[in-house]
Amino acid sequence: MIEEKGILFILSGPSGVGKGTVRKEIFNRKNNLKYSISMTTRKMRPGEKDGVDYFFKTKEEFQELIRQNKLLEYAKYVDNYYGTPREYVEDMLAAGHDVLLEIEVQGALQVKKNFPDGVFIFLLPPSLEELKNRIVRRGTETDSLVRNRLAEAKKEIRMMDNYDYAVLNDDIDRAVENVRTIIASEHLKRERVEKQYKKILEVELP
Questions:
Q1: Is residue 69 part of a domain?
Q2: Where is the Guanylate kinase-like domain (predicted)?
C-alpha cells in the first residue's frame, strides 16, 4: 500500500487580495489539511492558546531557532518576531497531512528558498482597481498608505513567476474550489506517485 507524505501548500499574494478569506473558507470545507501555526515573540493575548493560535517564544528562543535554521521563514514587525517553524510543518507532512501556509509574498519567497518542494499558489485580484476598493473598504488605511500598498502590489504581481499556480480571486467560491482542485491534482502527479510506488516494487512477494 502506498504511504503518501503530505504536501506543503503556500497561499500567497498581495495585501488585500483576500488570502485570509480564501484560507478560512477552505478550512470550512472537509479536507485533510492542517493550518501552519506561526511562531511569535509577542505576548499572548486573552483567550489565545499556545500551540493553537501561535507558538509563543521568547526573543532569545526565537533567535536561537534562526541560528539553527529551524524556521522556514521569519520577519520582524514592531519589535516582535513572527515565523514558520520547520519542525511542526515537517511533522505534519510526515504524518500524511497536507499543510496550508497563508503568507505574504516576501515570506513565501523565503519558504521557497528553504523548502523548494512546496507548492506555491499566487492569489490574484480581478484588477488593481478592485484591489484598491478592497483596501479602501477596510477603512484602516490613509490615502498615502493605499497608494503605497498598490505600488507594492504591482511589484509583487511581477514576482508571480516564482509560483506554480495562479488563482484569480474574483469569486470566493470559485477561488476556493480552484485551490482545492490544485491540492487534489498535486497528489496525482506522476512524479509523486512514482516515488511512492517504487518502494512497493522493492518489496519481495512471498
A1: no
A2: 6-184
Q: Is residue 63 in some structural domain?
A: no
Q: Which three cell numbers stand for residue 175?
A: 477561488
Phi, psi of 163 (to 5 degrees): -110, 160
List the one residue out of 30, 48, 25, 34 whose CA is nearest residue 6: 34
What is the domain range of residue 101?
8-36+97-201
pLDDT tens for each residue of 53-103:
999 999 999 999 999 999 999 999 889 999 999 999 999 999 999 999 999
30 in a structural domain: yes
Binding residues: 13-20
What pTM value is reported for the model? 0.88
Q: 124-149 burial string, b = 16+ CB within 10 Å, else e?
A: bbeeeeebbebbeeeeebeeeebeeb
